[in-house]
């Protein structure tokens, strides 16, 4: 598996098992996802996913002050997984 696929898997698994993650672990996962989305978007010259990155970064900031519910966090983790998956497919399609 590629690093992107591994991260997508980790995001989906974590979204389904939020109670097992500490707030620090949740924040680190969101930051990793936003950084990877940014890197892929920038490297592939895609536009439009910037909103996902900003959302993930703002969500990671609100984690520490308790302003996000587990349902919101779960939705954001799954959105990040979807964005990464879409970028991965698009990049692979360009290579073919």
Structure description:
The chain has helices at residues 3-16, 23-43, 50-63, 70-95. The protein is elongated. It is built from four helices and no strands. The protein has 96 residues and is mostly helical. The two termini are 18 Å apart.
Short description:
By secondary structure, this protein is mostly helical. It is 78% helix and 0% strand. The longest helix is centred in the last third of the chain and has 26 residues, at 70-95.
Oligomeric grouping of the chains? single chain
N-to-C order of helices and strands: HHHH
Q: List unreliable stretches of 5+ residues.
A: none
* Strands, total number: 0
Note the gap between the termini: 18 Å
What is the radius of gyration computed over CA atoms, rounded to a whole number of angstroms? Answer: 13 Å
Structural class: mainly alpha
Average pLDDT taken over every residue: 80
Shape: elongated
Q: How much helix is in the residues?
A: over 70%
Helix count, per DSSP? Answer: 4
Strand content: under 5%
Q: What's the main sheet like?
A: none
